[in-house]
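User: Predict the full complex structure for these chains.
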Amino acid sequence: MAGKIRIRAKAENGVTEVKALMRHPMETGLRKDQEGNPIPAEFIKEVTVSHNGTVVMQTYWGASVSANPFLGMRFNGGAAGDTVTVTWVDNTGATGNGETKIR
Amino acid sequence: MNQLTAPRGLARRGFLRLGALTLAAVAMPAKLWAAIARPDAAFTATGLDATFAELGATPENSDGIIFTTPDIAENGAVVPVKVEIDGSKLSGVSKIYILVEKNPNPLSGMFMFPEGTEPYVETRVKVAQTCNLYAVAEVDGKLYMTAKETKVTLGGCGG
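Assistant: Here is the predicted structure of the two-chain assembly.
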């Protein structure tokens, strides 16, 4: 389930603001389906944001981040045309990534 | 027999001591390089106190953490939260944690800020029932927190 990530990055007054929206069910493993069978856990454990290949933020998540997670962050520097990359890894080992150019 | 067991006992003790030293050596870098490893025990801890214990200590209250949460969440499955730091009151924040008191596992997320990244984060979390949400900031290994209550009219887990 390698999900795509929608990212917007905007540089203003020397600070780049990044907003990323991931597609992921973020199942806790505690819920049951209609027949009462447990739904297996499936959640993003790790998200990394990079600017031109340098990590500007690393995060670790538990299953209580909402489904289709949103992440907003800010880093100093960054100019229009620079690359911002967001990648995630979930508890099943699946990965997702997205890339955008700073506006 | 006795002559044999004595050295064996010593050897075993030496081995144990070596083991303890190795453990300490492994544990130390884990603390120093916490920015690299995921604190799995903290993520699976149940209850607020147990989670704080896994993070190292119960944080001190600080008004340098600006924690924006809704007072009332109609849908506990999607509760927007924002953590900002007032640099004049709290500087050098390297990590931010977001916790939801009454979730099965209170710790939702851990956010790490290398030099040049603002200690700022915006995300959405699940809140199982009306309770306090905590934003915790780490400065030089010391923890600071601020709490806010969110009332939930529809739970975030179990749909």
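Chain A has a mean pLDDT of 95.
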